[in-house]
Amino acid sequence: MDPVTFGVLGPVTAWDAAGDALALRGPRHRAVLARLLVARGRVVPVGRLVDDLWDEPGPGAVGAVQTFVAALRRALEPDRPRRSPARLLVTEGPGYALRAAPGAVDAWRFEAAVTEAGTLPPGRAAERLDGALRLWRGPAYAEFAADDWARGECARLTELRLRAVERLAEARLAVRPAAEAVPDLRAHVAAHPWREDAWWLLATALYGAGRQADALAALRRARTELVARLGVEPGPRLRRLEADILAQDPRLDPPAGPVAAAARLWSRAADAYDRAVAADAPARFEATVGLLRNLAVTGGGGLLAAREHRAETIAAAEELGDPELTARVIGAYDVPAVWTRSDDPEAARRIVGAAERALAALPDGAGGAAVRCRLLATIALETRGVRSPRGPRAAREAEDIARRLDDPTLLAFALNGAFMQACGRAGLAARRDAIGAELTALAARHGLVSFEVLGRLIRMQAGGALGDLAAADGHAAAVERLAERHERPLAGVFTEWYRALRTAVSGPPERAGAAYLRAIGLLDGAGMPGFADGLPPLALLSLRLTGPGVPASEAAALLDPDADWGPHAPWAEPFLLLREGRRADAGEALSRLPEPPPDLLYEAMCCLQAAVALDLGDRTALRLVRDRLLPAAGELAGAGSGLLTFGPVDDWLAAMDGALA
Question: Which of 128, 153, 174 is where one domain is finished?
Answer without folding.
Answer: 174
